[in-house]
Amino acid sequence: MRSCLLLLPALLLLLTLPDTRGRYNDDFDDGEDLAEFDDNDFAEFEDVNEDPTVEVESEPPPKPAPSSIPVEDDEDEATVEIEDGQDEFEDADAQDQDMYSKYDKDEFEGYEKTNSPFKDTLIYQDVPAHLQNSWESYYMEILMVTGLLAYIMNYIIGKNKNSRLAQAWFNSHRELLESNFALVGDDGTSKEATSTGKLNQENEHIYNLWCSGRVCCEGMLIQLKFLKRQDLLNVLARMMRPTCDQVVGQIKVTLNDEDMDTFVFAVGSRKAMSRLQKEMQDLSEFCGDKPKSGAKYSLPDSLSILSEMAEVSDGVMDSKMVHYITNHADKIESIHFSDQFSGPKVMQEEGQPLKLPETKKTLLFTFNVPGMGNTSPKDMDSLVPLMNMVIYSIDKVKKLRLNREGKLKADRNRARVEENFLKQTHAQRQEAAQTRREEKKRAEKERIMNEEDPERQRRLEEAAQRREQKKLEKKQMKMKQIKVKAM
Amino acid sequence: MTECRCFGAVAHYKPPSTDSNPTLEDPTPDYMNLLGMIFSMCGLMLKLKWCAWIAVYCSFISFANSRSSEDTKQMMSSFMLSISAVVMSYLQNPQPMSPPW
Description:
The complex is a heterodimer.
Chain A: H1 2-15, H2 18-27, H3 50-58, H4 64-82, H5 86-102, H6 139-180, E1 183-184, E2 200-201, E3 206-214, E4 217-225, H7 232-240, E5 248-254, E6 264-269, H8 270-279, H9 281-286, E7 292-293, E8 303-307, H10 310-316, H11 319-327, E9 332-341, E10 360-368, H12 384-399, H13 404-450, H14 454-486
Chain B: H1 28-45, H2 49-65, H3 72-92
Pfam families (chain A): CCDC47 (PF07946)
GO biological process, one term (chain A): endoplasmic reticulum calcium ion homeostasis
Main location (chain A): endoplasmic reticulum
């Protein structure tokens, strides 16, 4: 440390040595005689301006100060060895302060004396997280990837479970179906209808089976609608709402035209009946009354009936049917027989459709698989009696015939519905007819215009005029006839 | 038991057309596909990491709910887009994602 103290004045001395003066001499060379310069440390600053003199004044202080330092050092040498090293530092600090205070303040712009200039204002920046060697800062990304992995795991598990359930259902029903239908399993891709003998997978949670080749029915489409076990979002939603829908098997039997009489009938849980009455086109049109209780047929209270007329209910609900329904009431969601089935009500944006929707003679069955979501493959066996009921219903409906009164009533109902529909769409049909006529006229005119031969053009024009004349005459005749009739 | 099978009257399976009952179709895969694409574009353009991650989730959900008849190319392109969104946002800014709280 003593060597530092000695170096400091040495450095200062070096700064003021004649060597450096040589450089300054070049700067002040213009018009001054070198000889006039004394061999004086401060000769360079003479005759220039006052500022150098100020500097000259400030220069001497460092000189005596450094010279005093060795003296002080000598004085302190003895004390330095005995006393703490801090004294040296204190002296150095004091010297620094003294040095700066002796300088002219004008020389130093923007300099403010501070005791500890930089100690408090140091800001330690954090190392950016991505340059740190730790994975902890990426915890959000790790969470995301974990979530994705969980989703994939759930997808695989859910898909496998649904597949196992579907296979279990098919295995337990295969014998019954193969004894009743010539064709079991058809995916519609092959040209010839050959029995594939397996389910058609539409989705990870929907399986189809088409059976055909039976007397009195065109075909039967069985749709196994499982819960979306492969979608984690759905699984979580089901946890929140434990009263979610169960697994549903929807069986749609399409009958041949001569196999079913004209009636509309439905039986099922109360909730399902009220929903179907609002949604289904035929039930809303033909079964206008509220769902009735099935107590008349000793059905459980949970079930209700929608029927076109009482005779139909009596005809359908025979003892065997009642037996089936009562024993499996918890599994039955809805049973719907209709000769006017056209699906749910279609909401048209541009008003009503112009044609009556196409109807088919259909029997629809919707069953709930027991287990409330936690279904096991063994539960599929309990649905076999319901399939027996389906087969029985097909045969029964073929034999069921309304008496004369019932038939008349049914026909009147259908006529009424058709008339209502035509009335509602009358205005639209007129508009459509008008536009069609205008289109025809326009097309004809265009044809005439495009005709290059003037002779042919003239002839076509004449023909069009004659046709219009005839039409007008016809209309006039009609009006006359109507007037005569009115009179 | 009388034979009720009728081998001559076998009808070929006709898949129900979607035009006749559009309400019965599940719109989830289509919505998720669209959402996935929107989030991917947001993640790429606005350099938002969370958008890119949500896009990946959307494409997974769309895949899980898709019908088997649907085009796999559509699924694959949706996947690739969302994964590229994630990769690009991390290449541009390797900082870890900060939670919104």
